[in-house]
Amino acid sequence: DADVTQTPRNRITKTGKRIMLECSQTKGHDRMYWYRQDPGLGLRLIYYSFDVKDINKGEISDGYSVSRQAQAKFSLSLESAIPNQTALYFCATSTDAYNEQFFGPGTRLTVL
Amino acid sequence: AQKVTQAQTEISVVEKEDVTLDCVYETRDTTYYLFWYKQPPSGELVFLIRRNSFDEQNEISGRYSWNFQKSTSSFNFTITASQVVDSAVYFCALMRNSGNTPLVFGKGTRLSVIA
Which alpha helices (H) appear in B47-99, and where do they start and end? Predict the structure, then answer.
């Protein structure tokens, strides 16, 4: 089984809908991240969490919120989805600040 | 501010050619970490290498090699004898040594290896 899983893998929704993307990990890592990937822009950080009680905004947090329900779970919500939030979303985990991040398979979100 | 520049947006080579992907970074820190990730057409992100700023020794892993030069703030990636399976988007990333800052990614270089 994959160490970092994301659900759903694909989602099509309409403008104004509330959407939640979920991330679970079995690696036992404290640090979790949400990124967004757009063509030609690389990966941009949305939110990150260094432990259950710690949530930090990333580069592009506007329009998003997160919840760290447990060490293993980190959810990303779009309260009212808009078309320019159409993108590929990645969750990642890491043991500490200096080691590599392990990425989930991604969620492709389309907002119509 | 931390910044990573991958000036090559797309590169196309013929199979068996060598290819170098450039990565230039900006940081005021003396200690930092550099990374390369691969994103094949299937979409997942695969970790390739991490390099500490104190370790300027070049690294080779099979057909892959990395050239780290602090003097030019570059961490370039070379694929020798490229293969079609090397076709992917490659990302360079930078992390400060502060302990509580996340990765900063470049915009990626799309490599196409043609048979």
Answer: none
Interface contact flag, B95 A97, Cβ < 8 Å? yes
Number of cross-chain residue pairs from A and B with Cβ atoms under 8 Å apart: 46
The SS3 of residue B66 is strand
CB B4 within 8 A of CB B108: no
Instruction: Name the residue among A42, A102, A106 with its Cβ closest to that of B108.
Output: A42
B1-24 burial by CB neighbour count: b if 16+ within 10 A, else e?
A: ebebebebeebebeeeeebebbbb
- CA-to-CA dists, residue B69 to A33, B34, B49, B57, B89, angstroms: 29, 11, 15, 9, 23
Separation CA B39–CA A74 (nearest Å): 23
User: Do you find a cis peptide bond into A8, omega within 30 degrees of 0?
Assistant: yes
> Which pLDDT does position B107 carry in this prediction?
94
Quick check: B24 and B5 in contact, CB under 8 A?
A: yes
Instruction: State how far the Cα of B114 lies from the Cα of A95, in Å rounded to an integer.
Output: 38
pLDDT, tens digit, 9 for 90 and up, residues A63-72: 999 999 999 9
Q: How far apart are CA A70 and CA A53, in angstroms?
A: 9
pLDDT above 70 for B99: no
Give me Rg for the CA atoms of chain A. Answer: 13
A20 touches chain B (CB under 8 A): no
Residues 6 or more apart in contact with residue A99 via CB below 8 angstroms: B50
Is A98 in Cβ contact with B106 (below 8 Å)? no
